[in-house]
Design a protein that fits this description.
Number of domains: 3
Radius of gyration: 26 Å
CATH topology of the largest domain: Triger factor/SurA peptide-binding fold
Number of helices: 15
CATH class of the largest domain: Mainly Alpha
Oligomer: single chain
Strand content: 15-25%
Distance between the termini: 33 Å
Shape: globular
Number of strands: 10
CATH superfamily of the largest domain: Porin chaperone SurA, peptide-binding domain
CATH architecture of the largest domain: Orthogonal Bundle
Helix content: 40-55%
């Protein structure tokens, strides 16, 4: 793909993975699957198929047979439907204002105004309305995962201390990460000897082709039954704790570029490729910002326009010589910081909501923002100072609190658990 679909797009995996070309209306539609009483229509499957096919073609990947491609895409679509249904039942939504901000961020990443961005989309044959809904779905699923997983987890500082201490005692420095790719030739549950033999023969043929020089990513797209097949089997960067023992033992024997032999796991026959290795034992430096703010929450008595006007007046008073801290104490609706003159202390990147952080990051030291809105209300913010901070220890502790670490925080970790992250490890062996 050309134009705006170049490298470096980060919104929800990749920008090119979120857009969908306009397709001619089908004369007839049909139901291809039912997910909790909700029909998945042929037109919807065609929409996602076209989207993923264009993504693969832009990478120069060889497309798998149509029946394999359709099965893989339908599986993805069903999982997405289930997640969106759960989000709806749980009351997880993405309002138009948040959606607009996200799309504006995508346009900014491509160095375009919104009007130019929309015109470019339409010129390249993409339906802007469908694009918006694809982004909304991705944001909804992301919020669902945060609400259903992250926000239900409570880990005490003592548990984190014990986990890190156990790792140190076992000589586990957490220095290694592996970038792996994976091909799975699946066997059904309760497979017969004949089914196992058929899968093994197919896996051996795939392995022979790889050892003869076949491209691993293209082969994964065409042959793998794994969840990452359409991504060329790419599992991304993983720490040992995220990798099933069967694959980890094989990975430990591989050098970058090497391919394993055939691995027999509970899901079938697997082949892995070591793409890269890296050390994570590095100093983690961040730019911290010391800031303070005044918040006014719109209510039945105070409209948003009233809040904006009041904060504009407060900013003018501060610029005229009034003390920011005193005005925050008397006017801010943020009870947690008002008593401290609106002081937020030193904050790291990601500590604050994106809308607030974006405005704050655009200010120089001593500068005060214009009034702006977040989900909490209307603010003005002043940057007091910035500094470089060694965040290595905090980063290690934050990593230990991630969801897939929780089980290990409450029991003795197995030898070789080098760290944790949120990426799932199921259906890869």
């Amino acid at each position: 793909m050309t134009g705006i679909f170049g490298a470096g797009m980060l919104m929800c995996a990749a920008f090119s993975a979120l857009v969908a070309p306009i397709r001619a209306a089908e004369p007839l539609d049909e139901i291809v699957a039912v997910v909790d009483d909700e029909a998945v229509m042929r037109s919807e499957l065609d929409h996602y198929s076209a989207r993923i096919m264009q993504q693969l073609q832009s990478k120069g990947a060889e497309l798998p047979p149509p029946e394999v491609m359709e099965r893989q895409i339908l599986d993805r679509l069903i999982v997405m439907k289930l997640q969106l249904q759960l989000a709806k039942r749980s009351g997880v939504t993405v309002d138009d204002e948040s959606l607009n901000r996200a799309i504006e961020s995508i346009a900014a990443q491509n160095k375009m105004s919104m009007s130019d961005f929309r015109q470019t989309l339409e010129k390249e044959g993409y339906d802007f309305g469908r694009f918006r809904e694809d982004i909304r779905d991705e944001m909804t699923i992301s919020r669902l995962k945060q609400r259903e997983v992250d926000n239900r987890i409570t880990v005490t500082e003592r548990e984190v201390d014990n986990y890190l201490a156990n790792k140190a005692k076992q000589g586990d420095s957490g220095e290694s990460e592996y970038h792996l790719a994976h091909i799975l030739i699946a066997t059904p549950e309760g497979a017969s000897p004949e089914q196992i033999a058929t899968a093994k023969a197919r896996a051996e043929k795939v392995l022979a082709e790889l050892r003869a020089g076949a491209d691993f990513a293209k082969t994964a797209i065409a042959e793998s039954d794994g969840a990452q097949a359409l991504d060329g089997g790419d599992l991304g960067w993983r720490k040992p704790a995220q990798i099933p023992n069967l694959l980890l033992e094989a990975a430990a024997q591989l050098k970058p570029g090497e391919i394993s032999g055939l691995l027999r796991g509970p899901s079938g026959f697997a082949i892995i490729k070591m793409i890269e290795m890296r050390s994570t034992n590095v100093v983690h430096m961040v730019t911290q910002t010391h800031a303070r703010h005044i918040l006014i929450k719109p209510s039945e008595l105070v409209s948003k326009s009233d809040a904006l006007q009041k904060l504009a007046q407060l900013k003018a008073r501060i610029q005229g010589g009034d003390d920011f801290g005193e005005l925050a104490r008397s006017h801010s609706d943020d009870r947690g910081t008002a008593a401290k003159g609106g002081d937020l202390g030193w904050v790291n990147p990601g500590d604050l909501v994106p809308e607030f952080e974006q405005v704050m990051n655009g200010l120089k030291e001593g500068e005060i923002s214009d009034p702006f809105e977040t989900q909490y209300g209307v603010h003005i913010v002043q940057v007091i100072a910035r500094r470089q901070h060694d965040d290595t220890e905090e980063a290690r502790r934050a990593q230990a609190r991630r969801p897939s670490c929780i089980a290990r925080l409450k029991r003795k970790p197995r030898r070789g658990s080098a760290g944790c992250a949120t990426r799932p490890t199921s259906n890869i062996a």
